[in-house]
């Protein structure tokens, strides 16, 4: 038994429904033996997140002239890797405690990319939130009809739109409904 075997077995399962008891059975060990290696489901997801971030984070660092393509490579890697593990993207998209060491590395590298794009520290931080939230929410969507008569937009179109709008900048003041400047307001 090793952490690598545990993660490999978990990644072969649907993480949305996987129980610790099922994982132990898949590994051929007792339920209590598994808990000697992994304290609980949160600890299991911490291990999985370490592996997933290692898989998606590009080995190179972003550059001033290649930050956008670096983010695109990261996003496509997330698309491919998260999509290959049933339930993982949906788990990451839900509010929960993220594994700080792995997601912290991912966050720092994405913020670095936005800083290289010319964003000040606050804008780079805000751009990270927009990028990460937008990406994981899209990846967590079901791939089937969303009840609107169509599936989610193609990932390439979504990613292109997302990256063209980033890094963030000071927003244009848009009138709020009911304000004097809103269309149709008296």
TrEMBL record:
Cross-referenced InterPro entries: Cro/C1-type_HTH, Homeodomain-like_sf, Tet_transcr_reg_TetR-rel_C_sf
Coiled coil: none
Signal peptide coordinates: none
Protein name, as recorded: TetR family transcriptional regulator
């Amino acid at each position: 038994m090793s952490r690598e075997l545990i993660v490999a077995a978990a990644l072969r399962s649907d993480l949305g429904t996987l129980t610790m008891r099922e994982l132990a059975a898949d590994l051929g060990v007792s339920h209590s033996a598994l808990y000697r290696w992994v304290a609980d489901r949160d600890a299991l997801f911490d291990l999985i997140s370490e592996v997933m971030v290692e898989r998606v984070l590009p080995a190179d660092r972003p550059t001033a002239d290649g930050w956008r393509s670096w983010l695109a490579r990261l996003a496509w890697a997330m698309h491919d890797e998260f999509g290959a593990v049933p339930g993982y993207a949906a788990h990451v998209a839900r509010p929960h405690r993220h594994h700080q060491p792995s997601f912290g590395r991912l966050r720092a590298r994405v913020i670095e990319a936005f800083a290289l794009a010319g964003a000040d520290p606050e804008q780079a931080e805000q751009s990270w939130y927009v990028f990460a939230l937008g990406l994981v929410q899209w990846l967590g969507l079901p791939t089937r009809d969303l009840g609107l008569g169509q599936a989610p937009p193609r990932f390439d179109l979504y990613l292109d739109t997302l990256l063209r709008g980033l890094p963030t900048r000071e927003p244009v003041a848009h009138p709020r409904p009911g304000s004097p400047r809103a269309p149709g307001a008296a």
